[in-house]
Design goal:
By secondary structure, this protein is mainly β. It has 3 helices and 12 strands, in the order βααβββαββββββββ. It is about 10% helix and about 30% strand.
């Protein structure tokens, strides 16, 4: 797709083992907080981190899912292991962290940001979308000041690999005022 992103379709037999309603029920009851620019801010969607997650570090100015509220993260649930193995083979990486984001409507979003790369060992981040309907949203990557934004429509089963060249670039899922289908994103990293 570009020097920054690669997209692929997760095989249907694997997606069938990831039922939307089952994963939607895993959603936390409340939105959490994220660490950004040296303070905790409210997350604009529901999320939960599993597996190896970097320890909270106040000195980090960039975006962290470790908001200091938890020091123990649950293991990656078994339902995701076949997918994790598949995308690991696809991207030649062994993932040990999963962040799940749940988007109820267009008002749930991920602000444009740069990820915290402290302690990240892998050469990419892989995002897989699970969508409950036909009304889709965009993932947006901003490669640089003078380059056009890259928009990827997040369809069900679409995998997005953020290559090494994209990891320090700003990206997000902007808020929209139109009707959109519920969406779950699964972000796999290696720490």
């Amino acid at each position: 797709m570009s020097e920054y992103l690669e997209t692929f379709q997760v095989p249907h037999p694997i997606m069938e083992k990831l039922p939307f309603d089952l994963i939607w029920k895993m959603k936390p009851e409340q939105r959490g907080k994220v660490w950004h620019n040296n303070h905790n801010i409210d997350a604009h969607r529901f999320y939960k981190s599993y597996g190896t997650t970097p320890k909270f570090d106040e000195s980090v100015a960039s975006y962290m899912f470790s908001s200091g509220e938890s020091t123990q993260y649950p293991e990656i649930p078994d339902v995701f292991h076949e997918l994790m193995d598949h995308i690991g083979t696809h991207s030649n990486q062994t993932y040990n962290n999963l962040v799940i984001n749940w988007y109820e409507d267009g008002q749930d979003y991920t602000p444009i940001h740069k990820d915290c790369l402290d302690g990240m060992l892998g050469s990419n981040i892989c995002i897989v979308n699970i969508v409950d309907g036909p009304l889709l949203r965009d993932f947006v990557l901003i490669p640089g000041d003078r380059k056009a934004h890259i928009h990827v429509q997040c369809s069900n089963g679409l995998g997005i690999v953020m290559k090494k060249e994209a990891l320090d670039r700003r990206h997000g899922v902007p808020k929209v005022d139109t009707d959109v289908s519920r969406r779950i994103s699964l972000s796999f990293r290696t720490y």
